[in-house]
């Protein structure tokens, strides 16, 4: 078993375990911290696949900016274990059951997939490097790129308008 | 690494996100589970991109680059969504002093 395969299993176990801990922890602050661990594991997967640009952007945008925003909002609201809403046991059971059934159905559908057994290129290949991605982004995909900048601007204005005190 | 492993991993992450949305009642945790589902899809897109690159790199040196660009745009849209969504949650907390989504069953008040 080579080092990349070992790394794949380690990162997968880390991602799944910390994703489960996001659900199981009662304190919302702990949920945010476990979600950051999940994002780090997913970034590790990206870097293992040599998609370095996406990996670094995932770290900066998700694990950095978005999670700080979540943590900031939770601390602003003073949420903790005591303010956590009580929930119905049957509702929880039904949710877990239906999620498990969905997973079962999707994995069963994978059995008849066409491209089964094709390999994913690990540690090699240069399409994930920032030079190639940037070249494609600013030639073929320049219109979506500009539209996304307008989307960001409107989201920013919208957040300010929504959060403004007093109407 | 075979593609099935990546598919099963991201399916598991996606289903964990769905279970979170169904069972938790804290609006912020529900939001975080949506982020988890988006990340599962991103992981699968990158894996498929690297699969197509391995298959078609001889004919086209940038085969499979679209998958990673889609991931980039998904991240952009997710960041905008978080920005607006958290503003809505903060406003909701300011009005009802709770983030329990069950309070939202009376939206007209």
TrEMBL record, chain A:
<dbReference type="InterPro" id="IPR042106">
    <property type="entry name" value="Nuo/plastoQ_OxRdtase_6_NuoJ"/>
</dbReference>
<keyword id="KW-0472">Membrane</keyword>
<keyword id="KW-0520">NAD</keyword>
<feature type="transmembrane region" description="Helical">
    <location>
        <begin position="54"/>
        <end position="78"/>
    </location>
</feature>
<dbReference type="GO" id="GO:0048038">
    <property type="term" value="F:quinone binding"/>
</dbReference>
<keyword id="KW-1133">Transmembrane helix</keyword>
<dbReference type="GO" id="GO:0005886">
    <property type="term" value="C:plasma membrane"/>
</dbReference>
<feature type="transmembrane region" description="Helical">
    <location>
        <begin position="141"/>
        <end position="162"/>
    </location>
</feature>
<feature type="transmembrane region" description="Helical">
    <location>
        <begin position="90"/>
        <end position="110"/>
    </location>
</feature>
<keyword id="KW-0874">Quinone</keyword>
<dbReference type="GO" id="GO:0008137">
    <property type="term" value="F:NADH dehydrogenase (ubiquinone) activity"/>
</dbReference>
<keyword id="KW-1003">Cell membrane</keyword>
<feature type="transmembrane region" description="Helical">
    <location>
        <begin position="31"/>
        <end position="48"/>
    </location>
</feature>
<comment type="similarity">
    <text>Belongs to the complex I subunit 6 family.</text>
</comment>
<dbReference type="Pfam" id="PF00499">
    <property type="entry name" value="Oxidored_q3"/>
</dbReference>
<feature type="transmembrane region" description="Helical">
    <location>
        <begin position="6"/>
        <end position="24"/>
    </location>
</feature>
<keyword id="KW-0812">Transmembrane</keyword>
<dbReference type="InterPro" id="IPR001457">
    <property type="entry name" value="NADH_UbQ/plastoQ_OxRdtase_su6"/>
</dbReference>
<protein>
    <recommendedName>
        <fullName>NADH-quinone oxidoreductase subunit J</fullName>
        <ecNumber>7.1.1.-</ecNumber>
    </recommendedName>
</protein>
<comment type="function">
    <text>NDH-1 shuttles electrons from NADH, via FMN and iron-sulfur (Fe-S) centers, to quinones in the respiratory chain. Couples the redox reaction to proton translocation (for every two electrons transferred, four hydrogen ions are translocated across the cytoplasmic membrane), and thus conserves the redox energy in a proton gradient.</text>
</comment>
Automatic annotation (TrEMBL), chain B:
<comment type="function">
    <text>NDH-1 shuttles electrons from NADH, via FMN and iron-sulfur (Fe-S) centers, to quinones in the respiratory chain. The immediate electron acceptor for the enzyme in this species is believed to be ubiquinone. Couples the redox reaction to proton translocation (for every two electrons transferred, four hydrogen ions are translocated across the cytoplasmic membrane), and thus conserves the redox energy in a proton gradient.</text>
</comment>
<keyword id="KW-1278">Translocase</keyword>
<dbReference type="GO" id="GO:0048038">
    <property type="term" value="F:quinone binding"/>
</dbReference>
<dbReference type="InterPro" id="IPR001133">
    <property type="entry name" value="NADH_UbQ_OxRdtase_chain4L/K"/>
</dbReference>
<keyword id="KW-0472">Membrane</keyword>
<feature type="transmembrane region" description="Helical">
    <location>
        <begin position="5"/>
        <end position="22"/>
    </location>
</feature>
<keyword id="KW-0520">NAD</keyword>
<dbReference type="InterPro" id="IPR039428">
    <property type="entry name" value="NUOK/Mnh_C1-like"/>
</dbReference>
<dbReference type="GO" id="GO:0030964">
    <property type="term" value="C:NADH dehydrogenase complex"/>
</dbReference>
<comment type="similarity">
    <text>Belongs to the complex I subunit 4L family.</text>
</comment>
<dbReference type="GO" id="GO:0005886">
    <property type="term" value="C:plasma membrane"/>
</dbReference>
<comment type="subunit">
    <text>NDH-1 is composed of 14 different subunits. Subunits NuoA, H, J, K, L, M, N constitute the membrane sector of the complex.</text>
</comment>
<keyword id="KW-0812">Transmembrane</keyword>
<keyword id="KW-0560">Oxidoreductase</keyword>
<protein>
    <recommendedName>
        <fullName>NADH-quinone oxidoreductase subunit K</fullName>
        <ecNumber>7.1.1.-</ecNumber>
    </recommendedName>
</protein>
<dbReference type="Pfam" id="PF00420">
    <property type="entry name" value="Oxidored_q2"/>
</dbReference>
<comment type="function">
    <text>NDH-1 shuttles electrons from NADH, via FMN and iron-sulfur (Fe-S) centers, to quinones in the respiratory chain. The immediate electron acceptor for the enzyme in this species is believed to be a menaquinone. Couples the redox reaction to proton translocation (for every two electrons transferred, four hydrogen ions are translocated across the cytoplasmic membrane), and thus conserves the redox energy in a proton gradient.</text>
</comment>
<feature type="transmembrane region" description="Helical">
    <location>
        <begin position="28"/>
        <end position="48"/>
    </location>
</feature>
<keyword id="KW-1133">Transmembrane helix</keyword>
<keyword id="KW-0874">Quinone</keyword>
<keyword id="KW-0813">Transport</keyword>
<dbReference type="GO" id="GO:0050136">
    <property type="term" value="F:NADH dehydrogenase (quinone) (non-electrogenic) activity"/>
</dbReference>
């Amino acid at each position: 078993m080579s080092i990349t395969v070992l790394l794949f299993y380690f990162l997968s176990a880390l991602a799944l375990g910390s994703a489960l801990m996001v659900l199981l922890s009662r304190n919302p602050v702990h949920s945010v911290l476990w979600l950051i661990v999940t994002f780090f594991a997913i970034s590790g997967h990206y870097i293992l696949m040599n998609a370095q640009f996406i990996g670094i952007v995932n770290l900066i945008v998700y694990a950095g900016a978005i999670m700080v925003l979540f943590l900031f909002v939770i601390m602003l609201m003073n949420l903790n274990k005591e303010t956590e809403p009580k929930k119905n046991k049957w509702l929880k059971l039904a949710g877990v059951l239906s999620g498990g059934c969905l997973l079962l159905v999707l994995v069963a559908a994978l059995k008849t997939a066409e491209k089964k057994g094709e390999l994913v290129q690990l540690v090699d290949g240069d399409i994930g490097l920032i030079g190639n991605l940037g070249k494609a982004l600013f030639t073929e995909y320049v219109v979506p790129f500009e539209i996304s900048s307008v989307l960001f601007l409107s989201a920013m204005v919208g957040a300010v308008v929504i959060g403004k005190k007093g109407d | 690494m075979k593609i099935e492993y990546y598919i099963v991993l991201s399916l598991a992450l996606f289903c964990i996100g769905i279970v979170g949305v169904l069972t938790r009642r804290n609006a912020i945790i529900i939001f975080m589970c949506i982020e988890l589902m988006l990340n599962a899809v991103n992981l699968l897109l990158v894996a498929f991109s690297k699969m197509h690159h391995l298959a078609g790199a001889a004919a086209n040196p940038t085969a499979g680059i679209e998958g990673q660009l889609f991931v980039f745009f998904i991240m952009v849209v997710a960041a905008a969504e978080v920005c607006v969504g958290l503003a809505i949650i903060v406003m909701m907390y300011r009005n009802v002093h709770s983030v329990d989504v069950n309070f939202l069953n009376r939206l007209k008040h």
